[in-house]
Amino acid sequence: MSVRSSSSSQMTSDLSTNSSHYDTDTKICLVGVPQEKENLIASLQQLGYFNVNEMSDARRLEEFGTQGVVFIVDSFDCEEFSAVASRTNCLLGVPVIMACSRKRCLLPRRSRPLYCLLMDGMQICFSGFGTNIAECKRLIGLAHGMGAVVKKRIKYQTKVTHLVAQTPTGSNYDRALIAGIPALQPGWVEECWHHRRSVEDNFAERLVTQWSLEPLSFLRLHFYGFEDEEQKHMTEVAKQNGAVVVSADDPSLTHVVFNDFETVDNPFASRDVHFVRSEWFWASVQIRQTADESLYPYTWRPETPTSIATPTPSKSRKRLLYLESERPNKQRASYEGAESSPLSPKAKEAAKSSHRHQRALEMLQTERNYVAILHTIVKLFREPLENANQTGGAILTSAEVKEIFGNVHVLYGIHQALCEDLESLCNTWKEEAFHQLPGECTRSHRLSRSLEAPLPCIP
Questions:
Q1: Which of 153, 231, 339, 422 is the most buried (most CB within 10 A)?
Q2: Contact indicator for 28, 44 with CB cutoff of 8 Å
Q3: Does the pLDDT at position 60 exceed 90?
Q4: How far apart (Å, rounded) are the C-alpha atoms in residues 179 and 176?
Q5: Largest Cα–Cα distance of the chain, in whole Å?
Q6: Percent of the chain residues topping a pLDDT of 70
Q7: Using 50, 70 and 90 to split pLDDT, how confident is the model at 266?
Q8: How many whole angstroms separate alpha carbon 422 and alpha carbon 409?
Q9: Burial of 393 (0-12, 13-18, 19+ CB in 10 A)
Q10: 20 closest CA partner among 107, 100, 84
Q11: Do residues 344 and 428 touch, judged by C-beta distance below 8 A?
């Protein structure tokens, strides 16, 4: 007995100890006698736990008692686990013992049953499950069983390490993007639980890239009215961002993306899906989440000899238009003028014969999208970072905000006013009034006193 105590004391001195671990004099009980019993007992003794007992029948729990006892089971899906878990939370899975033996650390003390340590040290927030509360609770249970700590929400000053969400939307998702927290699909938790017996270090972390929640995850898209080259490119981008491109008659179809510059009938009138302009697609890619479909509705209109559509840019211009500078703003935070307002009938009629007016319309569309991007920078990033009224105060100091964002708020105000002037010019277009040129609008704002000092470029 003295030899055993001496060995135990020496072992404890070599191991990390704190209140979150079980002392080596803790009573251990093997429930159901796991198949690897001999290896398990040897690992426990190597850690200094010599008071090891066996209970082949969980019905003996009453006579065995639960006070000061740690129970070890082979599976969390067996009757023995259910019987013990109904009486005590001091319950560990066999993988915990093997992991502690490999790392030479004492058995962890937790407030709930712990099967393995695949997610030990992780703090996970679950979000976007809507009414599917049962599924959310099930995944939370799996995460707890693998050693994770679960948080209700992500705050601006947070210790959350991972976000698990069903949809790339919501305040938790927004804050995860700002804080650089990886957003993952629920399948990540399932995959980790499937490999819960794994003894590899950082196994769960290595699955993060595979299960990343992309901005178009879980969506089924169909592109309509695009030229072959452009549609091929958009299909590649959609796949890179988690979407699946399907045929028009696919029953899983969720969104039909129309070419903004085409005038077509609606061949999908009987389908219960979202009809959106291509702006919605590029906005989702840029803001890294599914944009609000109500901000980018596609209103189909039969093509008639008198109908006038927005002028169609060339193929190369269309690609440059979206990929370089004209991806719109974040959902639900859209600049008020980012939506295309209808032109007056007189202006539409003028567009039929006026190349000058068509170029003005293109300038207006470009300006709307640029204002939308500035709105995202100011409202989604700058203002939350310098808000002193939030919990914990401002995230950045005034000097840091100035260094990062420069005078972007000045640019925002100037281009808002420029956009309004261009819109007024296009809606009241008079071909004979040569002084009403888009260049005059630009010149008047360029000479604004706000621009006397040079401004930094906006990346």
A1: 422
A2: yes
A3: no
A4: 5
A5: 108
A6: 72
A7: low
A8: 20
A9: exposed
A10: 107
A11: yes
Q: How many residues does the chain have?
A: 459
Nearest to 106 by CA among 22, 199, 39: 22
- Residue holding tokens 């925002």? 412
**Are 313 and 321 spatial neighbours (Cβ–Cβ below 8 Å)?**
yes
Cα dihedral sign, 356-358-359-363: positive
pTM: 0.59
d(CA 397, CA 247): 51
Q: Select from 15, 27, 82, 86 the least CA-distant residue to 51.
A: 27
Residue 84, helix vs strand vs coil: helix
Q: How far apart are CA 429 and CA 437, in angstroms?
A: 9
Q: Residue 351 is which amino acid?
A: A
**Does the structure show a pLDDT above 80 at 374?**
yes
Mean pLDDT of 164-189: 89
Beta strands, E only, 185-258: 220-224, 244-245, 255-258
For residue range 413-422, list pLDDT tens digits in order. 888 888 888 8
Residue type, 49: Y
Query: 307 exposed, middle or buried (CB, 10 Å; 0-12, 13-18, 19+)?
Result: exposed
Alpha helix (H) ranges present in 278-327?
Answer: 278-287, 315-320
Looking at residue 434, its amino acid is: F
H helix and E strand count, the chain? 18, 12
What is the reported pLDDT for 332?
A: 38
Residues 361-390: what's their mean pLDDT?
Answer: 85
Best CA proximity match to 114, nearest among 85, 139, 137: 85
Confidence of residue 340 (pLDDT cuts 50, 70, 90): very low
What is the reported pLDDT for 187? 94
Tokens of 38: 């001999």
- φ/ψ of residue 258, rounded to 5: -95, 150
HSE (CB half, 13 Å, CA atoms) of 334?
21
Apex CA 213: angle with CA 210 and CA 219, to 5°? 110
- What mean pLDDT do residues 425-433 have? 72
Q: Which amino acid is at 123?
A: Q
How many whole angstroms separate alpha carbon 330 and alpha carbon 291? Answer: 6
* Residue 275 pLDDT greater than 60, yes or no: yes
> Residue 74 has which token pair?
């082979």
Could you tell me which residues come within 8 angstroms of residue 5 by beta carbon, excluding any fewer than 6 positions away? none
Q: Using an 8 Å Cβ cutoff, are 183 and 168 in contact?
A: yes
